[in-house]
Amino acid sequence: MEMANKGFIRALWLILAVALAAMVIPGAGKQSQTAPKAEQQFTPLIHSVEGPDLFRAYCASCHGMDAKGAGPAAPELKAKVPDLTILARNNREQFPAAHVRQVISGDKVVAAHGSREMPIWGPVFHQIESDVDWGNVRLESVVKYLESIQAINSLNPSSGAELYQQHCAVCHGNDLRGTGPAPDPFRAPPDLTKLARRRGGKFPDGYVSKVLKNGVVMPAHGPAEMPIWGADFTTDRLGESQVALRIANLTSYIKSLQEK
């Protein structure tokens, strides 16, 4: 009888110990807890699928309301937040829609971000609402909105120096002397600082503008190797006046660096 009582007491103590552990250690006595569902970790969706609304809700905190990279959260990030209004300017005046789409959805890793500080919005946008996935609509709306604000820059076209660096320096070199790494089998381009010197000290404004706009077959080169910027700028959906202004800016820049 005494041994039975001792066994009962030990069993009671064991029960009390387990109960105490359950009170002190949350989850004790339970099976391994299940991880929260992925949907619960997502940023909540806003009701609108319009580009401006989506940008304000998901992008403006870092990129700013004007998309120029000065949002309230920008100073906390390791990398500088890019100005999204000059994506076309930095891509030969052509908006890189496919690249932007990949970056937003998370299909493209951006080296400038390092370990990618920018959120991956693809899974967020693709959350199911009433059995409908509006993810592609949201993604396309944001891309179209970003493309629409590139037009702001067409009112203030790149300077001649900027245009030269974007389009000409790769072949003519930063110093205009034809020292750029001309791709094989193209020949070294001419020294643009000697255009006036070759013509008795008078810079050939009309000739340079014509070459930039329409291209030219140069006997020394054989077939024209230089891009026809008039056609390229027009292909980039710029109006005639904008094309003319860019060519004028580029011509003036080349003229300003003529060898004395």
Can you summarize this structure?
The chain is an all-alpha fold and 260 residues long. It has 13 helices and two strands. Helix 5 crosses helix 7, helix 11 (205-214) crosses helix 13 and helix 12 packs antiparallel against helix 13 (240-256).
Describe the structure.
The structure is a single chain. With 260 residues, this protein is mainly alpha-helical. The protein has 2 domains: 44-154, Orthogonal Bundle (Cytochrome Bc1 Complex, Chain D, domain 2); 160-256, Cytochrome Bc1 Complex, Chain D, domain 2 (Orthogonal Bundle). The chain contains 13 helices and 2 strands; from the N terminus they run ααααααββααααααα. The chain has helices at 2-24, 38-41, 51-58, 60-63, 97-105, 122-125, 135-148, 151-154, 160-167, 169-172, 205-214, 229-235, 240-256, and strands at 128-129, 132-133. Strands 1-2 form a two-stranded antiparallel sheet. Strand 1 and strand 2 (132-133) form a beta hairpin. Helix 3 crosses helix 7 (135-148), helix 5 crosses helix 7 (135-148) and helix 11 (205-214) packs across helix 13 (240-256). The longest helix has 23 residues, at 2-24. It is elongated and about 75 Å long.
Biggest sheet strand line-up: 1-2
Q: What kind of sheet is the major sheet? A: 2 strands, antiparallel
The radius of gyration is 32 Å
**Average of pLDDT:** 75
Rounded to the nearest angstrom, the distance between the terminal CA atoms is 119 Å
Please bin the fraction of helical residues.
40-55%
Overall geometric form: elongated
Count of extended strands: 2
The H/E string reads HHHHHHEEHHHHHHH
Q: In DSSP terms, counting alpha (H) and pi (I) runs of 4 or more, how many helices? A: 13
